[in-house]
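Subject: for your reference before the review

Hello V.,

The reviewers asked for a structural picture of the protein, and I figured it would be easier to keep everything in one thread rather than splitting it across files. Below is the amino acid sequence we used in the manuscript, unchanged from the supplementary table.
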Amino acid sequence: MNPATPLLIGRSSSHFTRVARIVAAELGVDLAFQPVYDLGSRDAADYGGNPAMKLPVLRLGAETVFGTENICRTLAERFPGGARILWTEQLPGSAARNAQEMVWHAMAAQVQLVFGTQAAGLPADNLYFAKAAEGMTQVLAWLDARIDDVLATLPQRELSLFEVTLFCLLEHLDFRPSVGWAEHPRLRAFAGDFAQRPSAGATAYRFDRPAV
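And here is what came back from the structure prediction:
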């Protein structure tokens, strides 16, 4: 790898990682990618040195950046010639900001459900997971009822963090099913439109496999 090439440490099956990869693609940034194969590891070194053992992590030379939004902002600052991105604080009013908050919540709940019930094999009817699933179901219905109005309020932009995170969440619900969202036509229409972007096509979810 060229030392000047930014390195993203994450998982191709992760919606948080995909957000960073889509933003990088929209900015025209060529990222090297280092997959993390074992989420059961409790060694921070396996997570790019992140003491919270969370992904993704970005390395820019000697600099390390933790977390999805932090990585997206750092890439936009370092490579300003790319797409103009609308950030959370630029969302126009509480309705749009509430929508972004609900997406972040649902993304975290998706990790909770997938890792807890599918990876760790814990019972899905446990109150901890049952409440997360019910909350996710309600969030999706809430977003479906408001998505068109929220998008209509957004100012001129080439991309917004809200749209990227929502798309990555929705496609992840098909990739790693936890709760259903087939009955949300507005969200389906949004995801279908966003999926036409080259950055979405280039970052499709898949499971990373170690070389044999």
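For the response letter, the relevant points are probably these. Strands lie at 7-10, 32-35, 57-60, 63-66, 85-86, 159-160. The domain at 7-83 is CATH 3.40.30.10 (Glutaredoxin).

Happy to draft the paragraph if you're swamped.

O.
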